[in-house]
Each structure stands twice: as structure tokens, then as C-alpha cells.
Amino acid sequence: MKSKKAVAYLIESDYDEGGLIVFAKSREQARNIALLLSGQFDHSRYIDLRAYRKPQMDKYYKRGKEIMDFNDPKDRLALVKDAGFYCSEYNRESDCAKCNAKKYCYVWNSEEGEG
Ligand SMILES: [Zn+2]
Predict the structure, then answer these.
(1) Distance between Cα 88 and ligand 1 center (Å)
(2) Which long-range contacts (CB under 8 A, 24 or more apart) does 70-78 make?
(3) Is 16 left (phi over 0), alpha (psi -120 to 50) or beta?
(4) Residue 98: phi, psi to the nearest 5?
(5) Which residues lie at CB < 5 A from ion ligand 1?
(6) In whole angstroms, what is the distance from residue 8 CA to residue 31 CA?
(7) Residues of the chain whose pLDDT is less than 70?
(8) CA torsion angle for 35, 52, 102, 41 (degrees, to 10)?
């Protein structure tokens, strides 16, 4: 029996809790993973979460991987480069100047341009 492969979804809530990339086999499973495993959506219920397909993130799926972790330098690089993520009050990089993903970060690049 061939099981369906997990693909990438972007999860967002109605409460400005930031975005999250999860790997799941369905939209419903993606929302459950975000709600129950990530700890990022403490103010949300299942119905407050929205899941959008992110095909450009599919290539980062590895067996057993369910969540892209912004605090992991490798994951962060991928999130900034291919999903348009950046630091916010929810996922603050302590020192953006030392961030390994700043080359791809449009917020960093636009701030640098102004200064
Ligand atoms: Zn940053």
C-alpha cells in the first residue's frame, strides 16, 4: 500500500500569531499539527486556522519532519529564502546582523537600504 506523501502548508490564524510551515498529508492534518504540536497558536482554535499550500517548500520535507522551525538556522534559511518569512515580534532573531538568512530577508535588506 502506497501512502500519500506529506506536502507543505502555510498555517495562519486570525490572531496575528505569525505564519508556520508544516508538512502534512491534508489541510486538516496540517491545521492539527500547527494547533497541537507547534505551540505557536495558543490563542486559536482549530476553526481559527487557515492552511494554504506552499509547493515551493515541498522540497524541504524529510521523513518524520512536521514543522519548519524558525529558530533552527537551516530551517530559517529555507523559510526566508523560499517562503518570504522574516523576523517579527513572534519569531525575533536576537541579532539580525548576524542572521544567516539576512541575504534573503527583504525586511533586513529594505532597512539596510534606508540607513
Ligand atoms: Zn532578522
Answers:
(1) 8
(2) 73/100, 73/101, 76/100, 76/101, 77/101, 77/104
(3) left
(4) -100, 0
(5) 87, 93, 96, 99
(6) 12
(7) 1-2, 89-94, 111-115
(8) -20
pTM of the model: 0.88
pLDDT value for 96: 86
Which pLDDT score, from 0 to 100, does residue 92 have?
Answer: 63
Cβ-based neighbours of 109, under 8 Å, separated by 6 or more: 102
CA of 114 to the centre of ligand 1 (A): 16
Q: What is the pLDDT of residue 90?
A: 60
What does the pLDDT read at residue 44? 94
Nine-digit cell at 87? 523576523
pLDDT value of position 94 = 65
Q: How many residues does the chain have?
A: 115
Find all residues with CB under 8 Å of 68, minimum gap 6, and list them.
20, 21, 22, 57, 60, 75, 78, 79, 83
